[in-house]
Design brief:
Length: about 525
């Protein structure tokens, strides 16, 4: 049975929000005392927490399906529903979270870091919260929205200061057991280590961690052998220690050829953006197994060539512990220098506030071709959430949704996109909510002010006046009426008035008619 897992797919379902309540308070002598329906509770979030005590993703490998609690429904007498409990999932420090498309969501490389990977649904409003001066007693409530439902990929990349790299059976596991309290599996056959082993080394006042990772062979950067299962655990290390076998019995192998192959694989492995390439990091070389006579002779033979390449070389034996003290202190110097360098360039924590862009839109209308004409798809956070919150069996709730969509400006955008009465409109992605669109007529002003035989509601695209245009036309008419009234007032002061029958006559003409009648 596997004891170490460093990559797993999680199937998550966050809690749904509770529905709002429709209730009217009833008391003695007050049969209808007003709405008192409470709001629904929010669904529980699923949160990932970087825990230093967790070293493997084995628990998620055995139980990959996780779901949080749903929110409770609202109740009468203004009682809100209970919120779903937040589910916390402990993951090892160094876990990288990917979405379904492979994009990186977050790198949890700091202990106690928290990340809401699956937000819970929003609770619906009760009819008490929907009451306004114009809508005294709503007969509907909003439904709770669904929580996030999907898959994420967790990938563990070991966090260590120094990585021990080398061919299989080079003595890496024996070395980490000799310099730390780690107890890795040790045997005399290749690929004994199938997963990374961590150990803590104390060298004077410096304490650092070392990682013994699976053996590296030619072609590892292309997935050969343990391949990427090894290389991704080297990404976070500050320094590399090449453990070279000086007592190998395999034909055609020697420390120099082993080092060249390892360097080629490290150079071919692409590190994430912003990280230092593997070969540009500090590197030391440990010639292991000098306790064997042939190994000691080979170490003395290859050491000058390695030093000529610029490497600092140590002759060690993990069995007799020869040379380990000097090696551990040399690694401590590299780790301490790297920590000081990072401390210099580390920026102070900042709070980044990203205001909403001025030209950011709440929704967009996409025109898609269909078998029976164009389909107009409305995408946006607000309209999609509003559709989820609507009880389509309640006509008042549907009318409330239509008002919200109209205020957002969706009708005008549909007209601009070429939609007409009866067009198919879908709100949301995929199947979404599909309906035959009927334009909302807020008043009869359009019909009253239109020329005979015309109807502005039937205009298409840019020919139909928008809300802003209609408002400007209304203001122009009001200004024209004011000017007409001012002109009439000026004529009245000049001697023109209205008789009892409503006809305007002059004072002189009226007096003339009186004389003739006499």
């Amino acid at each position: 049975m596997a004891t170490f897992v460093d990559q797993v797919t999680l199937h998550l379902r966050a809690g749904h929000g509770g529905n709002g309540c429709v209730s009217v308070k009833r008391e003695k002598f007050k049969p209808l005392a007003g709405p008192d329906g409470g709001n629904g509770g929010n669904g529980g979030d699923i949160v990932l927490v970087a825990d230093p005590q967790v070293t493997t993703l084995l628990g998620f490998h055995r139980a990959p399906h996780r779901a949080s609690e749903n929110g409770g429904p609202g109740m009468g007498d203004h009682r809100a529903g209970s919120h779903g409990e937040v589910m916390e999932l402990a993951v090892p420090v160094g876990t990288v979270v990917h979405d379904e498309d492979g994009g990186v969501l977050i790198d949890m490389d700091t202990p106690d870091m928290r990340f809401v990977v699956a937000p819970g649904g929003q609770g619906g409003l009760g009819n008490a919260s929907l009451a306004t001066n114009k809508r005294k007693a709503p007969g509907f409530a909003l439904l709770g929205t669904d929580g996030w439902d999907g898959d994420v990929l967790l990938e563990l990349k070991t966090v260590a200061d120094v990585a021990f790299v080398g061919y299989p059976s080079a003595g890496k596991s024996s070395l980490i057991a000799a310099v730390s309290a780690a107890k890795p599996k040790i045997a005399d056959y290749p690929f004994t280590t199938l997963h990374p082993n961590l150990g803590v080394v104390q060298a004077g006042e410096v304490r650092y961690t070392v990682a013994d990772v699976p053996g590296l062979i030619e072609g590892a950067s292309e997935g050969k052998g343990l391949g990427l299962e090894f290389l991704r655990h080297v990404e976070r290390c500050s320094a590399l220690l090449h453990v070279l076998d000086c007592a190998t019995l395999e034909p055609g192998r020697d420390p120099i050829s082993d080092l060249d192959i390892i360097l080629a694989e490290l150079e071919a492995y692409p590190v994430p953006d912003g990280q230092l390439p593997l070969l540009e990091r500090p590197q030391l070389i440990a010639l292991n197994k000098i306790d064997v006579p042939e190994g000691h002779e080979l170490a003395d033979f290859v050491r000058p060539e390695l030093e000529a390449r610029g490497y600092r070389v140590f002759e060690i034996s993990a069995v007799s512990r020869a040379g380990l003290r000097e090696l551990t202190f040399a690694l401590a110097e590299l780790v301490e220098a790297d920590r000081l360098e990072k401390a210099k360039v580390a920026a102070a924590p900042r709070i980044v506030i990203r205001p909403r862009a001025v030209n950011e839109v709440d929704f967009e209308v996409r025109v898609e071709g269909g078998s029976y004409g164009n389909i107009y798809r409305v995408l946006g956070l607000k309209p999609e959430r509003w559709v989820q919150q609507t009880d389509f069996e309640n006509e008042e709730a549907v009318g409330f949704l239509a008002d919200r969509l109209a205020k957002l400006g969706i009708e005008n955008e549909l007209f601009k996109s070429g939609a007409v009465a009866g067009s198919t409109v879908i709100i949301g992605r995929g199947k979404g909510m599909e309906f035959d669109w009927e334009p909302t007529l807020t008043s009869t002003a359009e019909l009253m002010m239109a020329p005979r035989g015309t109807d502005p509601r039937l205009l298409r695209g840019d020919d139909r006046p928008t809300h802003i245009t209609r408002r400007q036309q209304y203001l122009d008419r009001m200004d024209a009426k004011s000017a007409a009234r001012a002109e009439l007032e000026a004529e009245r002061e000049a001697g023109i008035w209205n008789d009892d029958d409503g006809f305007a006559v002059s004072r002189a003409a009226s007096e003339g008619e009186s004389d003739s009648s006499d």
